[in-house]
Amino acid sequence: MSEWIARRCDSLGVSTTVRENLDVCANEAVANVIFHAADALRDREIALVLDRDGSDVMLEITDDGAPFDPLSTDSRATATSLDDAPVGGLGLPLIRGLLPRSRYARIDARNVLTLVSAVEG
Amino acid sequence: MDIDAQDLDGEITLIRLSGRMDVEGTSRIETPLAARAVRDHGATIVDLDAVDFLTSYGIRALMLTAKALRARGGRMVLLSPNALVRRVLETAGVDTMIPVFDSLSEAQADLRAG
User: Fold this and answer.
1) pLDDT reported for residue A75
2) Which chain B residue shows the shortest CA-CA distance from A21?
3) Nearest to B96 by CA among A94, A55, A82
4) Is B60 an 8 Å CB contact of chain A?
5) Closest residue in A to B62 (Cα–Cα)
6) Could B97 and A82 be called an inter-chain contact, meaning their C-beta atoms sit closer than 8 Å?
7) Could you tell me which chain A residue has the CA closest to the CA of B75?
8) What angle separates helix A16-31 from helix B83-91, to the nearest 10 degrees?
9) Could you give the domains of chain B?
10) Which stretches in chain A have pLDDT values below 70?
11) For an interface test with A, which of B91, B94, B100 has the most A Cβ atoms less than 10 Å from its Cβ?
12) How many CB atoms lie within 10 A of CB B114?
């Protein structure tokens, strides 16, 4: 997946920083669908489309699993000490932090997460 | 991913990680990382210079190791993350819990100061 993202970003003129952010967030989103979804044991289909829209680049991640909006989960309380900090649950906050313009929709019984960024960054 | 460890001066353990810290890469080093870090119960520097990618699964391994060390009276700091790895650490708020340094001498000084 990362190699495909790199090739697509190269051909679309996306900066290295933005390509890296898309790569990290796509890893988090797909891992979340595979490992954490309510129906994680059922076979599901995940499709990725990466394209440019003017000065923006969009990576659309579609899955046919149970409805889940990864952008709506409560922000993880920010721990300031190692003792208080939970060790997991950081993937979805990373998406919100690195690509804050990302959006979610439920369309035709599918989850559609669209990661959005300016092509330069 | 690969992992390599050495004793710096009898007091500090330097662990070098290399490769992509995604689910697949991290699963190869998480057990040896935690085992090596807590072996001496002491001060540990985890060198991220050769880590070119980091996701939440890799962060989880770093946090678990730091917590395990802390529980045994030790301490862990991170060294030389590249721009992406630093951005991920900062976005996740990890840098406020595990100190991050750009030079080995700074990391050593911090650990010696306790």
Assistant:
1) 58
2) B84
3) A82
4) yes
5) A87
6) yes
7) A82
8) 50
9) 2-113 (3.30.750.24)
10) 37, 40, 74-79
11) B91
12) 6
Contacts of B22 in chain A (CB under 8 A): 2, 27
Q: Dump pLDDT digits (tens) for A86-119.
A: 777 788 999 999 999 999 999 999 999 999 999 9
A63 within 8 A of A111, measured Cβ to Cβ: yes
Q: Which residues share a beta bridge with A46?
A: A63
Please tell me the distance from the alpha carbon of residue B79 to that of residue B102, in angstroms, as a whole number.
6
For A70, half-sphere exposure in the C-beta direction (CA atoms, 13 angstrom radius) is 32
Domains along chain A with CATH numbers = 2-118 (3.30.565.10)
φ, ψ of residue B85 to 5 degrees: the values are: -65, -40
Q: Residue A51 pairs with which residues in a beta bridge? A: A58
Q: Which residue has the higher pLDDT, B9 or B45?
A: B45
